[in-house]
Design a protein that fits this description.
This protein folds into two domains: 1-132, Serine Threonine Protein Phosphatase 5, Tetratricopeptide repeat (Alpha Horseshoe), CATH 1.25.40; 134-232, Alpha Horseshoe (Serine Threonine Protein Phosphatase 5, Tetratricopeptide repeat), CATH 1.25.40.20. It has 14 helices and five strands. The chain has helices at residues 35-52, 55-63, 77-83, 87-95, 110-117, 120-128, 143-149, 153-157, 161-164, 169-173, 183-189, 193-201, 216-222, 226-231; strands at residues 2-7, 10-16, 22-24, 140-142, 176-178. The protein has a three-stranded antiparallel beta sheet with strand order 1-2-3, with no helix packed on it. Strand 1 (2-7) and strand 2 form a beta hairpin. One of its GO terms (molecular function) is transcription cis-regulatory region binding.
Amino acid sequence: MIKIFENGTRPIKYILTGDDTYQELPEVDTVNNSPLANINELGKQLLKFAFEGNIREVRALLAQGSPLISDWLGTSPLHLAAQNNNVEVCEALLKGGILKDARNKVDRTPLHLAAYEGHYGTTETLLKHGADINCKDMVRETVLNFFLNLGLGLFVRLRPVSLITIPNIDTYLDRIFQLNMTPLHWAVQNGHTAVVELLLRNGADISTKNKFDLTPQDIALQIDNMEMVELLQ
């Protein structure tokens, strides 16, 4: 972990060492094999091993003071661990101080990814550490694709009266919207019953609406999942 302290007019960078003390870094930048370049490499390695679920290497890197960096898409090590259901890695990262509600480029948190994939273990771990259960993402998708994913492609293509009255309907269906989906929305849409039950037990808001004014129960009705509808009563 790197901290910056002011010393007069010049900021000085320090790295946390293994004995919990801070050691000053030389004033160098990205020259190959420089201390700062090596620290950046530690961050890249942490992303790699978090993705692979290599808990031994993750713990070793955290002990060395690896920075908790994200990739160019805003994906943090915790996003990768949550998406791949690596519970031990999630625990280690959270105890190491990583942001539990870090957002990637489409505003998805690690909890979004865990719920989307139906990973009970990492969903439970994130909730235990206080992750925001009602956070909304801004995944971008066309209206047509959204309804196709709900199994309503025929409904859209048949052009019911409610859609026929919309001017330039074909252009409208190709328009890209931010979906504003919560973890509960995604778990319902993907049919992950156990994760839905877990989110509900932890206080997920069943009344929250997405971009199309759909609650999680509305989505359950549209995909004809009556078991899910009953859970969301």
